[in-house]
Amino acid sequence: MRDRTAWIVLIAAVAFFATIRDGLAQIVALGASATAGYGLAPSESFPSQLQAMLQAKGSATRVINAGVSGETTSQILARANSSVPEGTKIVILSIFMLNDSNHGVSPALHQSNVAGIYQQLRARHIRVIDATGLIRSAARAGMLQRDRIHLTAEGNHQVAARLMASIR
């Protein structure tokens, strides 16, 4: 009986730790303020809203918000690997030129940095989804905060809802 109990405990522990490992970071949203949800409550960012939508559908997928307001593409490139833990299946990128422009970064260096981010992620066999167009679409629809730069909670909701179609 003791051996049987020990086996059951061992199997349960292995299953538990496998679930934790797989749930650590299946999706990471990587970018600057548009990802971080600048000006909003953390629950109103598109990564948080995407997490809530996935949970509502019964998914155990975990979404990590690795957005840092104010960062340039050089800074995002420098932290891309450390911000995306092992086990990540998908990275959602939202990278714009604004922060780079504000720091005197040329369009050529911007493009080179973005290409470097993609290269690092693809080398790790991580699927990349570009959310930049979705964010621009919500902005064009007028879903902007008073600063006329960052999305409202409603805009982030729209982005998350459209991303749901890309998550498989």
Task: Give an account of the 3D structure.
By secondary structure, this protein is an alpha/beta fold. 54% of the residues lie in helices and 11% in strands. Helix 3 crosses helix 8 and helix 4 (73-83) runs parallel beside helix 6 (107-123). It starts with a helix and ends with a helix.
Number of discrete domains = 1
Q: pLDDT under 50 segments (min length 5)?
A: 5-24
Side by side, the strands of the main sheet go: 2-1-3-4
H/I helix tally? 8
Query: What is the N-to-C order of secondary-structure elements (H for helix, E for strand)?
Result: HEHHEHEHHEHH
Strand content: 5-15%
Q: If classified by CATH, what would the architecture be?
A: 3-Layer(aba) Sandwich
Features:
168 residues; alpha/beta; Rossmann fold; 4-stranded parallel β-sheet; 8 helices; globular
List the helices and strands and how they pair.
Layout (H helix, E strand, L loop, with lengths): L1 H22 L3 E5 L1 H4 L9 H11 L6 E5 L5 H11 L6 E5 L3 H5 L4 H17 L3 E4 L1 H9 L12 H12 L4
Parallel strand pairs: 1-2, 1-3, 3-4
